[in-house]
Amino acid sequence: MQAFWLGHQRGVVQSTFRKWRLQNRPPVSTVPTVVVASRSIVTPTQCLESETSSSLPSRQRSISSPFDHQPTTAPTTLLFSPAAKKQNSVSHFHTHSCQLAQSRKGDLIGREEVIYVRRAMATLAAQSHVDLVLNVDNINPNVKAMEYAVRGPLVIRAGEIEKELAMGVKKPFTEVIKANIGDAQAMGQKPITFIRQVLSLVAYPDLLSSKEFPEDVKSRARAILESSRGSAGCYSDSAGLELVRNHVAQYIERRDGFPADPNNIVLCAGASEGIRSTLKMLSTVSGPRTGIMIPIPQYPLYSASIVEYNMEQAGYYLNEDNDWGLDVSELERAVNEARKRCNVRGIVVINPGNPTGQVLTRDNIVEVIKFAHREKLFIFADEVYQDNVYAHNRKFHSFKKVTKEMGDPYDKLELASFLSCSKGYMGECGLRGGYAEIVNMDPAVKALYLKSISAKLCPTVLGQAVMDCVVNPPQPGEPSYELFSKEKAAVLQSLSERASMIAKSFNSIPGIKCNTVQGAMYAFPEVKIPEKAIAKAKSLGQAPDVFYAFQLLEQTGMCCVPGSGFGQRPGTYHFRTTILPQPEKLQIMLDKFRSFQESFMKEYQ
Ligand SMILES: Cc1ncc(COP(=O)(O)O)c(C=O)c1O
């Protein structure tokens, strides 16, 4: 690999690059690349060549950058500044092929706006003399159109900043606080001992003879191993290990007081996989496109997957003034409006809610079920936060239980409910465990569903083992019971304290309003963005809340996701933060937020 260091100043860029180009003319048949710094980074050579040769505006020469100090290994992107738009010139390079591919026009990265990444990518194909099968103009358009804000440009920039800090670049803060994603262990939460012990034995059965592990841990691990042909390295059935599916069904029965059929349980690699496989079943190839009702704001897995599967999003607004509850009149408005353009066939309800943190009342669930029945809709009950309920006046009710309690005809509704080991008190996001309970699906359709998931072979057996621990936890009298209960209660108690701390703090900051975080792991406060800031955002080609979130990141190191990534009523602005930073860090974060908001308002009011 060629190591090529781009100095930041114009002369250095141009002369070093020219020299390098002379020595390293790429053969016509290879994709030209420039490797910046010692590791990383691939960038279209022709872009650099044609665009650095025009003059760099002087403003850009003085931009402070890690490049001014030392070579970088930071993942970065191809950046174009607004000032460079006219001159058609590249402001400076940092680079990362992945981010390059993800960047979109209008993204603000650092203080720079991405103006034409696509053009840059097309230039690569057009000028490289390579007849590439895939270019950005001919790939699946749905893949291009789908967006996932939780890991979007802001988060990529946060990663860059972390690397810049590690290299000694001076910033007004010393660390990036990643409050963008519901990843509890990444924010310092300790794994539950029982889960990790079972997992250790399943992964390394030789430890079964060790005296270090309690008997109940060993018996769980032995059972999982027996069910998985002796090793977690074997494929399981596509729907998952029979033992775990049985335990899931027993767990649901205990939770709801109604029978559950293990044949209706499909284990999956995180709830995401189950949600996506089920959603895919509703897509059509001819006739009007399938419409799926999703809450606004919503968790972007839904909006992204709907686009990817060529379906239509039929958004219904949650009622912010009523603790983000669901209004049937709004559901009716949304379905009627959507039916003018698509065939609405499903409704997603996230309870407890992400990003809104609401926990639906039973009455509200009854209303939604009646609506789904009236409108003949498949219900997606995203219940991954069912253990995360903090409000004393709220309780989790599963959609399935309520349909059963309502009886005929509601208990015949087609419904899928999802749980995950990523959330709750476990926070085992990286182990990718989850399940879907699919109720009342036509047996012929279910057979096709199972066929469709068989192409993926199976979810990881280790992820299934975690789910087994979740649905079959230690019981009173078993050796692990006490520690397990203590650890579980401590996590949930701390999350509950953080939930109320966050809402209280935000509500004491002028210009920010936050509903009670009744459950889940997020707050979704509304922020009043002054007209002057809106105009500034517009001048940068950014949504006002995106501008706000980038300013927050650059000035404080706090990474929260702009509300537009989840959807919000036009004219309102929000951001989503997790409640997951550990209490001391959360306090620091909230203090920083307060002073950021004050200075933002001072600057733009
Ligand atoms: C509402 C909701 N559903 C599903 C998921 C998917 O989680 P996983 O795939 O990790 O189980 C998430 C993750 O944040 C979520 O918030």
From TrEMBL:
Which residue intervals make up region (Disordered)? 47-73
The first-level EC class reads: transferase
List, separated by semicolons, the cofactors it needs: pyridoxal 5'-phosphate
What domain of life? Eukaryota
Which InterPro entries does the entry link to? ALAT1/2-like (IPR045088), Aminotransferase_I/II_large (IPR004839), PyrdxlP-dep_Trfase (IPR015424), PyrdxlP-dep_Trfase_major (IPR015421), PyrdxlP-dep_Trfase_small (IPR015422)
Q: Which UniProt keywords apply?
A: Aminotransferase, Pyridoxal phosphate, Transferase
Q: Does the keyword Transferase apply?
A: yes
Q: What is its EC number?
A: 2.6.1.2
Instruction: Please state the span of the N-terminal signal peptide per the UniProt entry.
Output: none
Q: Does the keyword Nucleus apply?
A: no
Chemical reaction(s) catalysed: L-alanine + 2-oxoglutarate = pyruvate + L-glutamate
Q: Identify the CDD domains for this entry.
A: AAT_like (cd00609)
Aminotransferase class I/classII large domain location: 213-592
Describe, as the record does, how this protein assembles with itself and its partners.
Homodimer.
Record's PANTHER family?
A: ALANINE AMINOTRANSFERASE, ALANINE TRANSAMINASE
What's the protein called, per UniProt? alanine transaminase
Which species is listed as the source? Daphnia magna
The organism's taxonomy opens as: Eukaryota, Metazoa, Ecdysozoa, Arthropoda, Crustacea
